[in-house]
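Sequence, please.
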């Protein structure tokens, strides 16, 4: 396990310790352990740590088609969780979109302003004048009672029980293989986005690049499998898998790219 942990970043250590605590808890008590909503990097860490253990299994669910944020269940491998075990509720928000078009950040800001932690919410989807979001069942009643407006717009919120009415994802990730000399942030950006090393350096130093929702301003920041990058003006990248090395010791990567519309 120590060998595994040293592959992760120092600032990920507190989360890793939590995952190991969850693992010990499930091994000792032989029950299902439900997490809050985890981002893709956190899901990757859970899978990397728990996946080493044959006696435990991991299940994840986020309601939407190809969800980004999911709740996970860690349990003994002989257990099979149901959808209900994930304790997720879906809400639909209606608002007068003739006057104003609400964006993802408006909805997230309104939810966070009610004093909730980001880990209590899953994905937020918007299509025309319909907004849908998922959240942990334990905060559902509080949100339903208190979310009366988003920004300056009065909204109506109701629970959505018909999965047939869920907003379908229109995101299209293009997967492509690349060969890079290193996992440095500036190297990956210039190779995958086909821009100069100098331009990638300027983007990073200007605070226009986020790795796993955190701005990283160091050009030499080391990327890892499972990382999600958000680059202002260029969309998003996912480091999907490391596919080994070439004869010249270059790294082969499979990367997903979601272009900014």
């Amino acid at each position: 396990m120590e060998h595994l942990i040293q592959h992760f970043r120092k600032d990920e250590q507190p989360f890793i310790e939590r995952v190991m605590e969850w693992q010990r808890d499930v091994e000792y008590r032989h029950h299902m352990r439900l997490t809050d909503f985890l981002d893709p990097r956190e899901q990757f860490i859970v899978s990397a740590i728990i996946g080493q253990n044959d006696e435990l299994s991991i299940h994840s669910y986020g309601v939407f088609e190809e969800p980004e944020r999911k709740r996970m269940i860690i349990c003994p491998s002989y257990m099979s969780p149901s959808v209900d075990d994930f304790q997720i509720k879906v809400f639909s928000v209606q608002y007068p979109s003739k006057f104003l078009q609400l964006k993802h950040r408006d909805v997230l800001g309104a939810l966070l302003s009610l004093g909730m932690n980001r880990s209590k919410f899953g994905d937020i989807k918007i299509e025309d004048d319909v907004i849908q979001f998922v959240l942990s069942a334990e905060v559902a009643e509080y949100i339903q009672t208190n979310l009366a407006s988003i920004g300056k717009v009065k909204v109506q919120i109701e629970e959505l029980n018909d999965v047939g009415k869920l907003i379908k994802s229109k995101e299209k990730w293009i997967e492509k293989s690349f060969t890079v000399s290193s996992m440095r942030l500036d190297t990956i950006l210039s190779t995958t986005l086909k821009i100069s090393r100098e331009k990638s350096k300027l983007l990073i130093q200007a605070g226009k690049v986020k790795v796993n929702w955190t701005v990283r301003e160091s050009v030499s920041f080391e990327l890892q499998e499972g990382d999600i990058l958000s680059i202002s003006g260029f969309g998003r990248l996912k480091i999907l898998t490391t596919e080994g090395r070439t004869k010249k010791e270059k790294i082969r990567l499979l990367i997903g790219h979601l272009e900014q519309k």
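The chain has a mean pLDDT of 91.
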